[in-house]
Amino acid sequence: MSFKNLGLSSELLKAIEEKGYQKPSPIQEKAIPPILSGRDLLASAQTGTGKTAGFALPILNILQNKPKRKGIKALVLSPTRELSAQIYDNFKAYSTGLSLKSAVIFGGVKQGPQVDKIKSGLDILIATPGRLLDLYYQGELTLDKVEVLVLDEADRMLDMGFYQDIQKILRILPKERQNLLFSATFNTEIRRLANKILKDPLTVEVAPQNTAAETVRQVYYRVDKPDKASALLHLIGSMGGEQVLVFCRTKHGASRLSKKLEKKSFTSAAIHGDKSQQQRLKALAGFKSGAIQVLVATDIAARGLDIPLLPYVVNFEMPNVPADYVHRIGRTGRAGSEGEAFSLVAEDEQAYVQAIGKLLKKAVKLKTLQGFEPKQQEAGVEQREVKTNKPSPKPKPKSKPKGRGGAPKAKAHSRPGSNSPSGGRKKGPSKGGQKNKNTAVGNRRSR
């Protein structure tokens, strides 16, 4: 199927062509027609499947065909500043050639410029719940003309404690409106929220819940906690200067790790809740432009961060919420491209890995990274499988090793670590960090 078969206007089809889209993704193919027909929608899709276009395109098409009148007619709520900004960028790109105005508002920055945009007249507003309510109670905006409401990453909004804010916003909005709820998961809380706001919704699910994209190759390495930083340096050093997104569990840990990478000649930046909005936007802009090779983040960036053809994600620390793992690695392997996700697993994090395996409904194999074998590892045991249905039995000692550990075997294109020396512990990359291009991984940006 092509976009021409979905009922979109010629102006939107032109914008789609300029964006380089060839054909609609599964979520776009299933979501756009019912939204155009006015149906409420409950949609679940893996991150990176193009769901923003799945609701932005039909909303623009609907508003384009309606008589012009003052007031915000479409409201999109999202959990984070980063995601809100990227949704706005998509609306702006798709609406080229249309007489529709959009804006984005979020906290962490001065509200003056945002208020000025609202006062100038808007058709579409993308907002985080907190800043939206602040400006509403200050009398800086009205929501009595809203015809379409979108809750994007609804499960994340609930995780972040926005339930009460959402309820307040729902009471402010007109009763008669079209409601679109997008969520990575359909848990009990999401279904309860959906039952409250959706009227006779069409349910769209293009992939099983909590599943990782098939285009993402996942590798788990057992590494002692004190050796994690050196193991990360080794992995990044073998990536040939390609960009990598690294996840930490804590804000302090992310900042500390980014500074370590800088000392080893890697261009790096950290984003987390303690950073100002300007600092976060600057770091994201640097990463998107390629000026920053390694972006270190907490889970605040696990959703909404859209870097085209990002080749690598590394879990420096494992998330204690299994679903967050899916969202983290979903930053790579987007829109059908290939990606790799590496996880450095300490002994006290193996329970997290077991929970991830249960969520994904698959056994997770823990490997050893050559030169970084755990000190407590039993002699001869280089790989262990974490069961998903019952506790793993302790591996029996064997007289001989199964084989040599190390980074994964190279396929058509080389993998990180595949060109590593066979002996000795490697504590970090060669001098020059990302400048060393003679490494195992080729440049993927040609894909």
From TrEMBL:
Q: Under which main EC class is this enzyme filed? A: hydrolase
An annotated GO cellular component of this protein is:
cytosol
- Which ranges are annotated Basic residues under compositional bias? 393-403
* SUPFAM superfamilies, A to Z: P-loop containing nucleoside triphosphate hydrolases
The UniProt entry, under Gene3D superfamilies, shows: P-loop containing nucleotide triphosphate hydrolases
Pfam families from the xrefs?
DEAD (PF00270), Helicase_C (PF00271)
Which molecular function GO terms apply here? ATP binding; hydrolase activity; nucleic acid binding; RNA helicase activity
Region (Disordered) location = 375-447
- Return the SMART domains for the record: DEXDc, HELICc
Protein name per Swiss-Prot or TrEMBL: DEAD-box ATP-dependent RNA helicase RhpA
Q: What is the lineage of its organism?
A: Bacteria, Pseudomonadati, Bacteroidota, Cytophagia, Cytophagales
